[in-house]
Design a protein that fits this description.
alpha/beta; HET; three-stranded parallel sheet; Heterokaryon incompatibility domain-containing protein; HetReg/Transcr_Mod; disordered C terminus; two-stranded antiparallel sheet
């Protein structure tokens, strides 16, 4: 699965939202279509998210750290973050499902081994 941004002409496809706790930032990912480095605690967490999406057939994903530039030293990014934070409840409310990613990526990878009626097969 390649990560990229797509302008959809105002049509919002069904999407999953990710709620994560990154923990202590150890790495930064460079992802295609994202104009800033994405801070993460470890790359295994990102791999677990992608694996879940592949397994469950999730095509669209919204994550604040991917969709809102949160670079601390950028005034433009901080202004964007201030504008978008009030909209986050809308993003969560309109998602097909919320994928909750705990700090421990192993717990995450095992927590979705069963069937969940809220998540399409």
């Amino acid at each position: 699965m390649d990560a990229y941004l797509l302008e959809s002409g105002g049509q919002v496809p069904p999407y999953h939202v990710v709620s994560q706790v990154w923990g202590d930032i150890q790495e930064h990912l460079c992802l295609a279509g994202i104009l800033w480095e994405v801070p993460i605690s470890n790359s295994h967490k990102w791999d677990a998210i992608l694996s879940f999406c592949r397994t469950k057939g999730v095509r669209w994903l919204w994550m604040d750290v991917l969709c809102i530039n949160q670079t601390p030293e950028s005034k433009d990014a901080q202004a964007e973050k201030a504008r978008e934070i009030p909209n986050m409840s809308h993003y969560y409310r309109n998602a097909v499902a919320c994928l909750v990613v705990p700090t421990d990526h192993d717990t995450f990878s095992h927590s979705y081994s069963g069937d969940d009626p809220a998540i399409p097969p």
